[in-house]
Design goal:
heterodimer, A: mainly beta, 4-stranded antiparallel sheet, 30 strands, B: 9-stranded mixed sheet, two-stranded antiparallel ribbon, 12 helices, disordered N terminus
């Protein structure tokens, strides 16, 4: 296991291949088999790139969703891909590496509203979802039958994650993380309410990302320490908790108020935490942290507005979905042909020679 | 006889104000200003305005002009309304249920994409530049409709933050037509007479004050003395109407219906002000400039707006007040279709929406159309000048026949290159 000093060198983001996704994707994840990078975003399509092939060509997109696709989760067995959209639909695709994966099952109204996150139980038998309808539901991975529903919460949940033992962690839009047994019994609450503020009428912030280390001892919670609503500003913040006791072990303030949100978190097998941030257009950070270190091991600012990160199963590749430069601007930005242009997501795929 | 009014012909003296409770609308000299038929009608049925200002820019795509499942449509669905064929964002379900009362304009195309210039430009109606500062809509209505019979100030502004007398709104009309702002809906400080002051003492003090005022005003511009006096008179009237500010006495059911948040409380207070006879009530909501986190922002903001707005419109309808009260909800512009890297939308004056209802307005319709991706107006664009023409006409004020008199300079009350939108008028 490399020590803290080595990590920044070993995983220094230098050489990347860029895949451009137009329009933007909210997230891009490597499949557990490592062959695909899958993205979901603003045009209701599920995008797939064959990262095992030269040039990482794009495979046909999966269609049938609506609004935004922000739920993506895999089960290696049977090559199942679970996707969810902002209109409440969840879909299970089988054979996700094939040109035309089959729809194994589909729930048009799994939720009444925006599905934020999907997660597959480590036993592979079920899939959890949370949405803006304040519901957390568990579905059979095989046929989509509803297996369990947690009591409707007072506030919306933004993210969830399974622990290796099949217990579930959920993070809400008020900054509270809850740890649940599969039967809905609450094990513990983690107070991350510093990631939330009521600014005039607007509830701002909440838990934007959750991660567990390999041993499932440390829980990482990401978001922002918000200052105000409207144009949200706040310092990107990560809180580390002891999963067993609920004790907060560490707090990281990761930049300025313009850097704003920690959007995604993932522990690497080499025992460091990686995070990406987005804020005022143009800002963006990739950050490495180690629990026992007070300062980041690495802060890389060459990408703009990073919305997700995903480590390849081999641990030697990293995909970061960012945003093109000049993504903002008031009024009528048109190209030379007078066409109104949207934005795109450069997905940076870094390769490390560890 | 010069058909144009002179500002001093509309002097609102203390005596007139204090005597207003007895019904002295005629003493405001309205008939000199307006078309006689309209003025007579207005005196029969006092017209009022509720102007809801969503400061920073509500997204048209997350409210009145959704483009679900399109490139820039965002994550939300569209829902049907009580009017077949009209859909709005899922974030305004309560407004959707009362669409039969509402008129949506989806084809606004205005001139300014900055807050600093846009707020004033929109609220002044963006008239042609004639080298003068035009009044905000509230001041214009205060001038053109007068104070009514309530004795209350004709233009009040319920807003978060500080209180004060916002004379700047009045532009060339003079400070008297400025806004009386109630910060967080609270009354002016020291409104209650000290216990040691008896009514008789108070009367005596006022005689003394009047004499001092007269002496002060003798060698000064008339407008200055009038404005000073006016503010004092307004304060005296407000002293008698503390019920408008005591939110603890508001019906708890109303509080629940409007929302326990700041905007709900301010809207409920606005209804009380309208019921009390205030001519123009402006309610501000701040914090809508969602360059970052637009979608979570609107997911949180819109339901609160929707709750209070729908409760207000329903209450006005139930009280038969919609025939007299013009209700407008709008911002200084909309928000960009394209979504920036902060998951926000920027400023967009090119194709945006507002909603209105009430007196003189046809209800249950959506006027204007944007293209499939919501980037441009498809048919006729309407500027704010068109809205001012429409609103004045709806209030019974004919913009073609009514002019301001700025010290002898005749000025149109709305942009003379625009016109009322006929489809919107009942």
């Amino acid at each position: 296991m490399p020590d803290a000093k080595d990590i920044a060198k070993l995983y220094e983001p230098k050489t990347s291949t860029i895949i451009t996704a137009e329009p933007q994707v909210s997230l891009a994840r490597f499949s557990p088999c490592g062959k695909l990078l899958v993205g979901g975003g603003y045009d209701a399509r599920v995008r797939r790139w064959n990262v095992a092939a030269e040039g990482m060509p794009e495979l046909p997109a999966l269609e049938g969703h609506h609004g935004w696709v922000e739920g993506l989760a895999f089960r290696a067995e049977g090559e199942l891909l679970f996707t969810a959209d902002s209109w409440g639909q969840i879909c299970c695709w089988s054979g996700y590496t094939e040109d035309k994966p089959a729809v194994k099952w589909k729930l048009d109204q799994a939720h009444d509203g925006w599905v934020r996150t999907l997660a597959v139980n480590p036993d592979g038998k079920s899939v959890a979802s949370c949405a803006s309808d304040r519901c957390i539901r568990i579905w059979s991975a095989e046929d989509g039958a509803k297996q369990f529903e947690f009591p409707q919460s007072e506030f919306g949940n933004l993210c969830l994650k399974y622990a290796p033992d099949g217990t579930l962690l959920t993070g809400d839009d008020r900054g509270i993380v809850r740890h649940w047994k599969a039967d809905g019994t609450l094990i513990r609450q983690f107070d991350a309410s510093s990631l939330y503020v009521l600014s005039r009428l607007q509830d701002v912030g909440g838990v934007f990302a959750l991660a567990l280390d390999k041993e499932a001892k440390t829980l990482a919670v990401g978001g922002t320490k918000p200052v105000n609503g409207g144009t949200v500003v706040g310092v990107p913040t990560i809180l580390l908790f002891d999963l067993a006791t609920g004790e907060q072990k560490q707090k990281y303030d990761l930049g300025t108020q313009n850097d704003c949100y920690v959007a995604d978190l993932q522990f690497h097998d080499d025992d460091f935490l990686s995070a990406v941030t987005y804020g005022t257009p143009g800002s963006g950070q990739l950050i490495y942290l180690k629990a026992e270190e007070k300062a980041p091991l690495l802060t890389y600012k060459q990408m703009q507005n990073c919305h997700s990160l995903s480590w390849h199963p081999d641990g030697k590749r990293l995909a970061v979905a960012a945003t093109n430069g000049g993504s903002n601007g008031n009024g009528r930005p048109v190209d030379k042909e007078g066409k109104y242009k949207g934005n795109n997501s450069p997905i940076h795929v870094f390769t490390f020679s560890t | 006889m010069n058909p144009l009014c002179k500002p001093w012909e509309h002097a609102l003296s203390r005596r007139q104000l204090l005597g207003a409770a007895a019904g002295v609308a005629g003493s405001l000299g309205l008939s000199n200003l307006l078309h006689p038929v309209a003025a007579a009608d207005m005196q029969k049925k006092a017209k009022q305005v509720l102007f809801i200002w969503i400061d920073g820019g509500m997204s048209q795509l997350e409210s009145w002009d959704p483009k679900p499942n399109t490139l820039f449509g965002g994550p939300f669905r569209a829902i049907p309304t009580s009017v077949p064929g009209i859909h709005v964002s899922e974030l305004v379900p309560r407004s959707a249920k009362i669409m039969q009362h509402l008129a949506i304009v989806r084809s606004l195309c205005t001139q300014d994409n900055s807050h600093s210039a846009g707020v004033a430009r929109i609220q002044r109606g963006d008239p042609k530049n004639r080298g003068v500062t035009y009044p905000y809509f509230g001041s214009a209505v205060a001038k053109l409709l007068g104070a009514g019979t309530s004795g209350l100030p004709p233009y009040v502004w319920i807003k978060p933050g500080s209180s004060g007398f916002i004379h700047q709104d009045a532009g060339f009309l003079g400070p008297k037509f400025g806004a009386v702002a109630f910060g967080d809906g609270k009354p002016p400080e020291n409104l209650v007479l000290h216990d040691s002051v008896t009514p008789a003492d108070d009367d005596e003090r006022n005689v003394l004050r009047a004499a001092a005022n007269a002496r002060y005003a003798k060698n000064r511009r008339k407008q200055v003395g009038e404005a000073t006096s006016y503010v004092y008179d307004v304060a005296r009237t407000l002293m008698k109407r503390q019920d408008l500010f005591d939110t603890t006495k508001f019906d708890p059911k109303d509080v629940e219906r409007y929302g326990t948040h700041e905007f709900g409380r301010h809207m409920l207070q606005a209804r009380k002000m309208l019921e009390a006879g205030v001519t123009f009530v402006k309610v501000n909501s701040y914090g809508w400039d969602t360059h970052g986190d637009n979608f979570n922002g609107h997911l949180s903001l819109m339901p609160k707006f929707d709750q209070a707005f729908a409760a207000m419109v329903q209450d006005l309808a139930d009280r038969s007040m919609l025939d007299n009260v013009l209700v407008i909800a709008m911002s200084e512009f909309g928000r960009t279709p394209r979504i920036n890297g902060h998951i926000g939308r920027d400023h967009w004056p090119e194709a945006w929406s507002l909603v209105m209802t009430g007196c003189g307005i046809k209800r249950g319709l959506a006027v204007g159309e944007t293209n499939a991706e919501g980037t441009w107006v498809k048919n006729q664009e309407f500027d704010i000048g068109h809205m001012f023409h429409t609103w004045f006409t709806a209030l019974g004020i004919d913009p073609a026949q009514t002019q301001y008199d700025n010290g002898g300079q005749p000025l149109p009350i709305a942009h003379d290159g625009c016109h009322a939108v006929k489809e919107l008028l009942s």
